[in-house]
Amino acid sequence: MRIGFVGAGRMGRPIVDRLVAAGHAVTVLARRPEARAAAEADGLTCAGTVAETVRAAEVVFCVVLDDAQVRAAFLGEGDGLAAMPEGAVLVQHTTCDPGTLQVLAEAGAARGARVLDAALSGGPHDIAEGRLTLWVGGDDRVLAEVRPLLETYASPVMPVGGLGNGQRVKLVNNALFVSQVGLAIDAVRVARQLGIDEAAILAAVQHGSGASRALGIVAGMGVTAVGDHLAELMLKDVLVVREIAERTGVDLGAIGGVLSSAAVEQGVLRGGAPPGRSAVAARPAQTAMKDH
């Protein structure tokens, strides 16, 4: 298929590689000079604008930095939706406000373009092994059209209902994950007060009913390092969860309490935050929303 790919960075480029290996013709837009140079060095076709990237594409992928860049590329100055051919599909992978998907769909409908909300979970290593998780919101018939493309790099590809639900599932998942990491960090604090050191409690609990993926990550990195690794990845999602909950009146309950705890604020989200200042307050939402 003819594919336009907007955003060939940390996550986008390995997806491009899997699509090319499967025999598809991919035109890439990479904004960073080093990313474009790497793409050209590997023989990829590069475009200079969003419109050039999508103009002949049957399917367009969006893997950019944040909600603002999605809107700029496809609704604003990039004018991507207006440049897409009639009948083309936009697969939107970037973490964003669920409402953005509805705006994209309404704008695309005027051109006959369709939109899928394909929130992702995992990293570049998962893409390389074809096991990225995708939570897909949107029309099942559109998903059926592009599923063979998605399955070149993702498994499972899970339909989760209407447009925007992919993003909602991802935000709930990441809020739960961050909470679990925070609880694991706090469990180490409790264990220390009981006279058990960090390595011992983390090794022991991994074999008990308190085990989880989050606990395993804390055990592998250590309490001191885990926040430095996760802050850039998770802060944006905590910000969006809080913003959406406030706007829609959703009660975050126990999850909200854990997300506001010192264990999460200082232990998980502290990267880049001045000492003694809330990590969530340290960065505005528009700059913190970095896709992973």
| Name of the CATH class of the largest domain | Alpha Beta
Order of helices and strands: EHEHEHEHHEHEHEHEHHHHHHHH
Give the helix proportion (percent range): 40-55%
Main sheet: strands, sense, barrel: 8 strands, mixed
Cα distance spanning the termini: 26 Å
Number of domains: 2
Q: What is the CATH topology assignment of the largest domain?
A: Rossmann fold
Mean pLDDT: 91
Number of E strands: 8
| Backbone shape | elongated
From the 3D coordinates, which CATH architecture of the largest domain would you assign? 3-Layer(aba) Sandwich
> What is the H level of CATH, i.e. the homologous superfamily of the largest domain?
NAD(P)-binding Rossmann-like Domain
Give the uncertain stretches in residue-range form: 272-277, 282-292
Please state the oligomeric state of the protein chains shown.
single chain
Radius of gyration: 20 Å
From the helix content, strand content and strand pairing, which structural class follows? Answer: alpha/beta
Number of H- or I-type helical stretches: 16
Features:
292 residues, Rossmann fold, 2 domains, single chain, alpha/beta, disordered C terminus
Describe this structure in words.
The active site is at residue 170. Residues 273-292 are annotated as: Disordered. Keywords: NAD, Oxidoreductase. InterPro entries: 6-PGluconate_DH-like_C_sf, 6PGD_dom2, 6PGDH_NADP-bd, HIBADH-like_NADP-bd, HIBADH-related, NAD(P)-bd_dom_sf. It is a single chain. The protein is α/β, with parallel strands linked by helices and 292 residues long. It has 16 helices and eight strands. It has two domains: 2-162, NAD(P)-binding Rossmann-like Domain (Rossmann fold), CATH 3.40.50.720; 167-288, N-(1-d-carboxylethyl)-l-norvaline Dehydrogenase, domain 2 (Orthogonal Bundle), CATH 1.10.1040. Helix content is 54%, strand content 14%. Strands 3-2-1-4-5-6-7-8 form an eight-stranded mixed β-sheet. The model is unreliable at 272-277 and 282-292 (pLDDT under 50).
